[in-house]
Amino acid sequence: PGGGAAEGAPPPPAAPALAHPLNFVAEERLTAQLSREGAVETVDLRGTLTVTALQEAASRSRVLLKVDESGKFTYQPHPKVDRAAFDGGRALAMKDPAKGFPLERALGLLRWSAAGAMGGGAGLKVPLSINCWPEEEGRGAMAVSIEYSLERPDMRLHDVVVTVPLGTAEQPTIQDVDGNVRHDAREGTLSWLVDLIDSSNRTGSLEFTVPCRDPDAFFPITVAFTSSDLYCNCEVLQITTVEGDTPVQFGLTKQLATDEYQVA
Question: What beta strand segments (E) does 22-140 contain?
Fold first, then answer.
């Protein structure tokens, strides 16, 4: 473990390069509300599969998918997509075979969602849990211990930022940290930055002291991260042209990001 100051916020995920006749992006957005006792109160996961066509011949194609069939997710294809082909064989093609995917602009082909308490109706687990213990140290100061735990060791979380309100503009004293920290005096927050959390560093901790008398001042904690590992492991198996059954080259990028992820 080592401490240090980080410059600036982590960069946003780079836009996927368009290098194939058909370019797909499977994106998920995760919203979660956790209690400070560790319970998951609410969660909402929404996913979208989009395609950008760069060649007119490739735009008139049929896309064969593999999706999660466990019953955790609800799927909704675009109204212009042949619903019967999707329901019957997980194939995506336009209802009108004479019309292809639009050229050089993204088109949403499929949406999916899962909601409810993780471990409850949806049967899913949050990727990361946060345990925060503020304790009075005396002399008007609080000692704060925070620990993260990777609850999904099969996922790799990038650009993790855990932001803790301090209730004061005073500079905290860092005792120990796995990763780096950034203090924002104007906002009265301390951000804990970890570039990558995976199975090799499933837990990590941050310890600091700060002038404060209220243990509730350190909530709500907000968490942000990205990942290329999705909940709904959507795969493009095969693409062929509607006329002629010719194979079409394609690329698929997967990305998950947090919309709102709080511990309160």
Answer: 22-34, 40-53, 61-66, 74-77, 91-92, 107-115, 128-138
